[in-house]
Please model this.
Amino acid sequence: MELNEIIASMEAILFAAGDVVPAARIAQVLGVETQAVLDAAAVLAQSLLEQGRGIRLLRLEDNLQLCSAPEYSQAVIRALEQRRPPRLSSAALEVLAIVAYFQPVTRAYIDQIRGVDSSYTVGVLIERGLIEPAGKLEVPGRPTLYKTGSVFLRTMDIQSLDELPTLPNMDTDEGIIALQNKIEALQAGELEGQISFSEAE
Model:
């Protein structure tokens, strides 16, 4: 199958799906290798960007999705009469960071790091799709493990977890201060990003 045909077929599939589709699934349908689909996705993504189109192709690890271009988000919100979602609370940011950097983790592990019960905040993040169950830990009680998914990657505007910023070295005072400064900047709203929601702890 020619590259242009792969691109056109993939674009049609993603448009019709309206959601994340594994590249392997598209490859299976088209009868090509998964890498051929990922290569075609890179070409299409660059083309949409260069042409200034109103849609973008996102690669979320080995999954693909078409979405509206971020610069037109306000027009989309107004047209569809959607309210801008509130920001994430500091509690939700803490839980999300713990899951993102140490996944898969149990709620007990999150509670241990934070020093408070996180059941409500974990529930909020699951409801928003930012974290999701990832099986059970093979210990007595078999607690649920949590991990981030494609919604987290899309929200953070990254393709894989490898793109997350490196954590400061917590074995030094400088590292602890650097991390605290970043947390305070987030709480003060100085670091603008796509994450939003505001939930109580």
